[in-house]
Every structure is written in structure tokens, then in C-alpha cells.
């Protein structure tokens, strides 16, 4: 019998994992997953069909698992750069709490489980969209775009924008203009949201060698692009009302939220070169999170209230 001095090495010479359930949960990127689930739920509820509660629960669970699988695969591949960034150094893999092979296996198993569950128990269109989302985020964005182009967030944002389309497809078996408008809102929201973060975390990205926009094009160009996206996003956020998908209540609220986004982006555009310049970027980053949640929450409330009034007046 071999003598083992290291308590984390077994008799066969393999390292023993110290991972806890909490560490594996952290691999799922729960904050990102919660946003994915919420936007998918809005797409599901807004669909003009009567939703079977059991099917809806299965679909949401599968979408949540698929989103978590994407996060695990992202953390597995990005462990090397996560280790040198202060924002991510405490994640389970770079901190040594989870072995890379464990994270990879975990992500692959969850990917297969989520797609097969959605396909067999719900429908194969939504399953195909979920499979595409996982592949796009884990392979196209994480393995290719993130390390090769400053447009990584622009193109890669498609993965985070698909959940409402998946939710809609799960209960209707189709993809509609309404679900694509919800996709477009998230897609256009993603660049200014992440570029605001990149402005005050540019040193981190530089250390990791990630070509984020401020590190490649400079802060001035990034600020201009953030403002340009804000000008495009604001009217797109109102588009559901313009197209007749919602009431004027949503339209007014989305106008106000869009104006707020433009205002915060304007403050970023006007930033100077002193040590306080990051405050507007941090404020925009925080507001952008509020904006997306509020837009979808109001969209959901508008639909639920409208349906209740229609039923009450019948």
C-alpha cells in the first residue's frame, strides 16, 4: 500500500475533490441564470396560448439547467483568465475548490439533460434553440469570440438574448415577431451594459489579455459606442407598444426607462480624465440591470393585467 502524505491525494495518486454543493451551484452562475429564467418566463407567459402549468414548470426547469450548464462550461474554459482577474479569482475552479475535469463533466451532463428534457417533454423546437444557445455561449463566444475580438459582447450577446424566444417556443411550438422583439431588446442592451463594466474593470481585462472594447479602441471610443447603443435601445424598448403587443401603460414606462438609459449613457459620454471618471460607468452598469429587469417586469404585468381585464369583461 502506497504511503500518502498529502491528505488530498488518494492511494492511487489522484487528487481528492474538496468541492461542496455550494461550489457546484456557483458554477451555474446563479445571477445570470436567474435573469435567463425570468426573461424566458416572460416570453412564455406573453404567448397567446393557454399554458399547461406542468409543461411550463418543466420548460423553465430545463431552461434554467441549460443556462447553468453554459455557465459551468464557460468557467471551465476560462479558468486560466479567471485566475488573474480580481472580479473572478474567487470562482470555484481558479480558487481550487473544483477540479477542471469536474466542471467540464458537470457542464456537459447538464447540457445533455436540459436539452433532452425540453425536447422529450415539451417540444423539439425549444430544445433546438436551447442547444444552440448553449453551443453559442460555450463554444462560439467563450472559446472563440471572447479572446479574439472586441466585438465579443456584441456578437456573443445573442446567446443571452434567446431565452424569451425559447420560452415562447416552449408553449407555442413557434417563433413569433413578438418574441423576436424581446430578443432584440436584450441583444441591444448587452453591449452598453458590459462595456460600462469594462470601463471600470479595464485593468482586469488587460491583465487577462481579453480584447474588451476599452482596451482595444480606447475609453473615448467605447463611451461613444455606449451612447450610440443607448440611442438605439431606447426606441426599441418602446417597440412592443408601437406594434400593439402591449398597452400604453407599458409604452409610457418604457419611454421613461429608455430616457433614463440615455441620460446615464450621456453622463458616461461626458466623462473626463480624472480619478472620478468611473462613477458614471458604475452608475450606468447598475441602471442597466434595473432597466432590463423593469422592462420585462412591466411587460409581464401589462400582459397579466390586460388578460385579467379581458376575462373580467367577458
Overview of the molecule:
With 314 residues, the chain is mainly α. It has 2 domains: 157 residues, UbiA prenyltransferase (Tetracycline Repressor, domain 2); 139 residues. It has 14 helices and no strands. The longest helix has 36 residues. The protein is flat, with a radius of gyration of 21 Å. The protein starts with 20 loop residues before the first helix and ends with a helix.
Tell me which CATH architecture of the largest domain applies here. Orthogonal Bundle
Largest sheet geometry: none
Helix content, binned percent: over 70%
Number of strands: 0
How many domains in all? 2
By CATH, the superfamily of the largest domain comes out as: UbiA prenyltransferase
Q: With helices defined by DSSP (H or I, 4 residues minimum), what is the helix count?
A: 14
Rg computed from alpha carbons, rounded to a whole number of angstroms: 21 Å
Principal-axes geometry comes out as flat
- Low-pLDDT residue spans: 1-8
Strand content: under 5%
N-to-C span: 80 Å
The CATH topology of the largest domain? Tetracycline Repressor, domain 2
CATH class of the largest domain: Mainly Alpha
By secondary-structure content and strand pairing, the structural class works out as mainly alpha
